[in-house]
Amino acid sequence: MISNFRKDSLFDLIASLAPSEKRNFTLFARRLSSNQGAKFLQLFEAMEKMETYDERQLLEKVPVTKKQLPNMKAHLYKQLLTSLRLLYADRNIELQLNEQIDFGRILFNKGLYMQSLKVLDKAKQMAREYGLDTVMLRVVEMEKVIESQHITRSIRNRAEVLSRESAALSENVDLKNRFSSLSLQLYGIYLKTGYIKDREGQLMLERFYKQNMPAFDLAALGFYEKMYLYQAQVWYFHIIQDFPLCYRAAQHWVDLFHASPHMINVASGNYLKAYHYLLDTLFYLGYYDRFSQVLEEFQASLESSAFVMDDNSRILAFLYLYSNLVNIHFLKGEFTRGVEQVVPALLKDMKPIRSKLDVHHLMVLHYKVACLYFGHGDNEKTIYYLDQVIQNNQDGLREDLQCFAHILKLIASYEAGKDEKLDGQIRNVYRFLIKMDDLHQVQKEMVRFVRNLSRIYDHELKAAFIELREKLIVYEHHPYEKRAFLYLDIISWLESKIENRPVQQIIRQKFLEKSLLEKEK
C-alpha cells in the first residue's frame, strides 16, 4: 500500500512535479467545492514549500495528527497520480488504451453490451496499429467474456474467431517476452561482469544465448519482437566484443524506428537506447566520420518538436547525449576541449536530476569525466572522479569498471607525484583483483610496473616504459585481453612517457593520421 512507502516517497513525487503539473493538480483537486480547504490540499501546499522532508515541521503546519499523517499522505499520493494520469492520457497511447478498456468494462457492467464491444474494438484497432499485443490480448479476453455469455449473438462464428485471435496473440506475447527476457538477462550479465574475460566465459555465454534464443521468422515478427531481438543481439555481440556484428544489430534497431516513426513517441526510451548503442559501437570501432554523422542525427532528433519527451526520456537523453559528447572528444584526442566545453554543461544539467540517476550510469559518467581530466593532464581531478567510482562497490555493479578505475588511479597518483600513497593503493588493487578473480595480463603488468617504479632510476625510466609498451602491445587485439584498452588507452599513455609529450598530443596525432589515411582511400 502507498502508506507503507518510505516516508519521503510523497515528498519525492511532489518535488519531481513541473510547475504546470502542480497547477493542474490544484485545479483537479479543487474541482469539487467540498475539497476547498481540504486537509490533503493543505498537506500538498506545505510539502511543496519544503526543501527537505521534515515530518516534525510538517505536523506543525498541517492540521493532522501523527497518527493520521500516513493515511493522509497515501490519499494525497493517490490524488496526485490520478491528476497526472488525466493530464497525460492524451499524450500516451497506453494510458489512452487502458482508459478505453476501463470504459468497455463499465459499459459491460451497465448491461450495454454492444456499446462495450464497440469501444473495445476501437481500442483493439489502436493497439494493433502500435504493435501492443499485450493490450490486444486483454481486449480479446474481455470480448470473449461478453460473447461467452451469449449476450450479443453478433456473429455466428464469433467464438472461433476470438479463440484463434487469442491463441495467435498469446504466441506473439510469449515470443516477445522470450526476446525481452533474454535481452534483460544479457544486460544483467554485462552490468555484473562487463566484457567476456576468457574462452570458458565465452562458451558459457554462447550456450546461454543459443539456448534462450527462440526460433523465429524475421519477416513474421512484429515491431516489439524485432526491437527486443535486436536488443538481445546488441548486448550479446557487445559482451563478446564482436563490434562489427554489434554495429549491424544496433543499426537494425535504429532502422526499425525509422521504418515506423509513429513508434518513436510510444517506445521513446528504446528509441534513445537504440541510438546510444549504435553510437557506442561506432566509438569502439573508431569510425569517427560515421560516429559524427549519427551523433548529429541523434542531437537533431532530441531537438525536434515532433519528439515528445517525458521525464524518463529526458533522463535517458541526458545520459546518452553527454556520454557520446565525451566519446567524440576521446576519439579526436581533444581532452582539454572536452573538459572546458562538455564537463561544465554536464555537471550543470546533472544537478537537478542527479537523485534520479541510477548508480551504474553515475559510475560510467564519473569514469568518463575522470578520463577526460587524465587526458587533459589534471591528475587531482582525475583521482577525485575515480574515487566516485571506486566508492560505489555495491554488488551487481560493473566490476571491470571499478578494476580499471583502480588502475587509472594508480597511474594518476604516479603522475601527480603521490609516491607515498602508491604502496597502499597497489595493495588495494591486488586485493580487489583477487576478489573479482580477474588477474589478467594487462592488469598484472600495469600493477607490477607501477609497483616497481620506486626502484627505477630516472635515467632508466624511458627504457622501462618502452619495455612495458612492448609487453602490452601484443594484447591490443587479443580476444580477451583487448577489453583493457576499451577502458584505458594505456599504449598512448606509455608513448607519451617515452616521447615526453602530453598523452593528449599522442592521441590527437593518431586521430589525424587515421583521418588522413581514410580520406586517401
Outline:
By secondary structure, the chain is an all-alpha fold.
Write up what this structure looks like.
It is a single chain. Helices cover 73% and strands 0% of the residues. It has 521 residues and is mainly α. Helix 7 packs antiparallel against helix 8 (133-148). The termini are far apart. The relative contact order is 0.05. Mean pLDDT is 87; it is low at 1-6.
**Quick one: how many beta strands?**
0
Strand composition percent: under 5%
* Euclidean distance between termini CA atoms: 65 Å
Tell me the overall shape. globular
The helix content, as a percent range, equals: over 70%
Number of H/I helices: 25
Keywords:
disordered N terminus, 521 residues, single chain, globular, mainly alpha
Provide the fold topology.
Layout: H1 9-16, H2 19-29, H3 39-48, H4 55-61, H5 69-88, H6 93-109, H7 113-129, H8 133-148, H9 158-193, H10 199-212, H11 223-239, H12 243-259, H13 268-285, H14 288-303, H15 311-332, H16 335-350, H17 359-376, H18 379-390, H19 399-415, H20 422-435, H21 441-452, H22 461-473, H23 484-487, H24 490-499, H25 503-520
